[in-house]
Amino acid sequence: MNRAEKAALQLQAVAVLRMLKETRTYEELSDVTGLPAGDLNRYVNGHVLPGTDRASEVVESVGREALADELIARVEFDDEGYVDNSGVVFDQSFLDLVAPVAAETFEFESPDVVLTAATDGITLGAAMASFFDARLAYAKKSKETAVEEFIESRQRLASGIELTYYLPASAVNAGDTVLVVDDLIRSGETQELLLDIALQGDADVTGVFALIAVGDEGMDRAREITDAPVGALTTFE
């Protein structure tokens, strides 16, 4: 890890601690993190940065648990099982904290392209692309008028509906590394289409990440397609 990477990790840890401090005293924050309250005070107020080992622990362990708890508090299910995650996907500052935690937790390799599906996946995709300094690409269910060449992936769903996604062919180059992300994974059908688009573009998949997994079906489906890491911030049964 070079000096710039260490500094970025330390600043990410401080951002996580500041988020946690919004609803906790320093003593409560100490109970959550296992760190002395005095040290936490100095970190949160910007007087000193945590060491790299401590910063890594905050981002990977404490950060994931805290963000998962926050995510659970923001997500709502209706009587038919539909998910309302607007309290998450519309909060870019929250998603900006998710990106480093996901990267540390699942050890995703830095991709050239972050690929997602329009529209709810775009804000998460933007956060991940910014963190990795990668390009953002998103597939849509309709073709862009001015684009001539597309990568197209089509699948007939169990319901009988045919789902098709289109990505401008120039968005992914042969040999690119691609991280597939989405806000939600349930059946895995959307992620399968995105993975197919990446493979059609002769790209190498470095991972699949979702904010929310509903059950295991979608995660298992993604793991059958790729050997790259597959993970979700939190899972609802």
List the helices and strands and how they pair.
Blueprint: H1 3-21, H2 26-33, H3 37-44, H4 52-74, E1 76-77, E2 83-84, H5 86-89, H6 92-106, E3 113-117, H7 121-132, E4 135-139, E5 150-156, E6 162-168, E7 177-185, H8 189-200, E8 204-214, H9 217-225, E9 230-236
Parallel strand pairs: 3-4, 3-7, 7-8, 8-9
Antiparallel strand pairs: 1-2, 5-6
Overall average residue pLDDT: 92
What is the CA-atom radius of gyration, in angstroms? Answer: 19 Å
Number of strands: 9
Gap between N and C termini = 37 Å
Output the strand order for the largest sheet: 4-3-7-8-9
Number of helices in the DSSP assignment: 9
Q: Give the low-confidence spans.
A: none
User: What amount of the residues lies in strands?
Assistant: 15-25%
- H/E series, N to C? HHHHEEHHEHEEEEHEHE
Structural class: alpha/beta
What is the overall silhouette?
globular
What is the percent of helical residues? 40-55%
**Major sheet summary line:** 5 strands, parallel
GO molecular function: glycosyltransferase activity
Organism: Halorubrum miltondacostae
Domain Phosphoribosyltransferase: 93-203
Keywords: Glycosyltransferase, Transferase
